[in-house]
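[Solved] Which block belongs to which protein?

Original post:
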Amino acid sequence: MVKHTAKEAIKLLKENDFREISVRGDHHKFRNSQGLIANLRYSRLKDTISKGVFDDIKKAIHGQSKWQLMHKKH
């Protein structure tokens, strides 16, 4: 099983125009210029991100996530 770190997920988000807009505890919220939002939960950059969460981030980047489209900024 492939394991991804929070650092890898953040790098992927930033490479695709997402910027961190807020942090509450260990919940980090990212938004791109089109208003799509991605949430990532981590305490340290070395924390492991599950494959499902990492795949959801990739889907959000490509606009395939219904959740992301529902939370698009108006």
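(Second protein starts here: sequence line, then its structure tokens.)
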Amino acid sequence: MKLTTIIYAIIITAFTISSCNTQNNNKNNIETTEKTNTEEHLQSKLLNIPLKTEEETKRFEINPDIIAIDVFGANIAMNEGTELLKKMFPEAKITPGTSSEVFDSFNIENNNNRYCGIITYKQNDKEEFVTKTIYISKGFFNEDIAEKILSQNNMQ
């Protein structure tokens, strides 16, 4: 099962990188360290999302460009993570990406700013796959970021 999970993770990460690379036309704009008002607004919304959860929702930064929201207590069913994102960002265009048993990938476009992300899933007590963590990154994922996400979820 662990080997299968690692293989899924590698495949999904490759698809996410590929998908995000094709959608990001201007790499120089992505790499700039100066935040626009839209980026600050998006980051502010990410850190202040009211979720009704059984457990305290944990929000943390992996690094300045990746926000992670731990929503395991929300018990959002697998493949419904993008619906949660649409509620979080009603003004943004959210495009679902590749899906698997442990990941859903997605892209967010808002006022010409592009973000990519992964929604991870874990089994709960009832053996149902539920949303665990939503990772959102400015620009596109690279191997270092994917490795951090995998290690954060003990998937390596």
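Accepted answer:
You had them paired correctly. Confirming on the second one: The chain is about 35% helix and 30% strand.
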